[in-house]
Amino acid sequence: MEGQPKDLGTFCPTGGCSIAGGDSVICDEPTSVLDVSVQSQIVNLLGELRRAFGFTYLFISHNLVVVEHLGAAYPNPIAPPSGCHFHPRCAKAVPRCSLIAPQAVIPEDDRVEGHLFDSAQSSAA
């Protein structure tokens, strides 16, 4: 195989991963049908690929043990964070994000929520 693969399914038996852009990999339930030992091998392989190629993963899984093993954080659905539920994981969070939940902004057939869009909401009013 020459160069970087365009589809990790070419050597990843789950076939649930694909490269979305130069360094982004989408993994949609890549370990869901595998036994625990093979899940571990796949997760370790994904870690090796991240270190070798600098990949960023969008990892979709119902198996929170696998998600934790990858080092990803997720909120507690029973006791979500105050304010914006994404502020603990958001690189652009500002102090008010932890205090006030953002309101929905609906610009041209779309919907977003976030304090970064508050100015768009007030200018549209």
Question: Which terms summarize this structure?
Answer:
125 residues; two-stranded antiparallel sheet; single chain; alpha+beta
> For the residues shown, what is the average pLDDT?
76
Helices, by number, come to 3
Question: How large is the share of residues in beta strands?
Answer: 5-15%
- Based on Cα principal axes, name the global outline: elongated
Determine the structural class based on helices, strands and strand pairing: alpha+beta
Largest sheet: 3 strands, mixed
- Strand order, main sheet: write it out: 1-2-3
Rg, nearest Å: 18 Å
Query: Can you tell me the residue ranges where pLDDT is under 50 for at least 5 consecutive residues?
Result: 8-13, 120-125
In N-to-C order, the SSE pattern is EEHEHEEH
Helix content: 10-25%
Distance between the termini: 55 Å
Number of separate strands: 5
Q: What does this protein structure show overall?
A:
With 125 residues, the protein is an alpha+beta fold. The chain is 25% helix and 14% strand. The protein is built from three helices and five strands, in the order ββαβαββα. The protein has helices at 36-53, 64-69, 118-124, and strands at 17-19, 24-28, 56-60, 104-105, 112-113. The chain has a three-stranded mixed beta sheet, with no helix packed on it. A two-stranded antiparallel ribbon has the order 4-5. Strand 1 and strand 2 form a beta hairpin. The radius of gyration is 18 Å and the shape is elongated.
